[in-house]
# Entry
Amino acid sequence: MSSKLELLTPQNSQVIFIDQQPQMAFGVQSIDRQTLKNNVVALAKSAKVFDIPVTITTVETNSFSGHTYPELLAVFPENKILERTSMNSWDDQNVRDFLAKNAQEGRKKVVVSGLWTEVCNLTFSLSCLQDTDYEIYMVTDASGGTSVEAHEQAINRMIQVGVVPVTWQQVLLEWQRDWAKRDTYDAVMDVVREHSGAYGFGVDYAYTMVHGAPERTEHGEMIGPNPANK
# Structure
């Protein structure tokens, strides 16, 4: 029986963000760049909710790629950034060591978000699969390529060798799995409201119907539901 039939859980997963840097994003043509950043940050916040270890790696930060998105760093301000020179993250021993430490704890499902799909994501995935028994889950809407064709053909090539394509919201809800898990319920809803577009609007609407319109300070900040409207 394939281990890929096992759902993603907070216990069997780890996440790696590869080169989520502005110069890399400038070259992305396969997805709207603002949508891309939204999805990357949403995936990061999702991992934070479930206390899933995250590796952040960058390439040539000070020469041409620029620094990691501040919105991503704000989610994990304590994380060490693994700087490297190779386009293939797997070539870097620090990256391999970080992933191996998590894998030793049973986290062999590696959730990947990176730029560009056809270079950094592809080479990392193929090399990782060749050298280990890890599984790769490629977050297609939190990754981007230099064209739609480049992105799609890279995903197709990865699928042929066993990489599993997923989307960030799919990963979030797979980690949650059961709405009876109240310890993460509110935090998941916060991520959904902030990053999930139409689904988030629906949650906002539902919460307003149940709890009433939120009270606001004189400056307009929300301070919680208005009990008078319940």
Observations:
- The beta strands are 13-18, 54-59, 81-84, 109-114, 135-139, 164-166, 214-216, 222-225.
- The radius of gyration is 19 Å.
